[in-house]
Predict the 3D structure of the following.
Amino acid sequence: MQHGLPRRALLGAALVLPLGACDSRAFPNLFGGSPPKVQSRGDRMVRWLYNTGGERMMAPDALTLMGITNEGRDIPVKLLGEDGPDGRYVIALVSIRKVYEFVLHRLKNDVFIFHSCDRTLKRLSSVRYARNGKPTVIADAAFAEADFQSQLAFWVERMPGR
């Protein structure tokens, strides 16, 4: 009669113990789990604006030119605004069409520059709106893209958990 552990138990422990030391995040499929999901920057921005943005209504004039309409009525948004080195920056989360979109804008030399983009942060359209004038689509794609990237960088820098 033997005292102590049977050989099979000892062999089983020798095989299983090294696996217990493994980090389950490093080998997610080994134990049946799925890899952790990393949210895109746009999805994190949606969550940030949805949770911290103030509920406001935006006039439809410039947004209508960008294809965002609410049948002529003001458009409900979640909005954040902050002063930057060259004026006031504003970002709005719009969900009028059951999809989230962003509208970024700032005042530059008495002209508002608006940009709309989707959740992938791809610029969709840009509009120039003089204080005492009518909104017009920005035809200069290089200017529009450069200004959009500048405004987007301003907000990405301020986004928590970037």
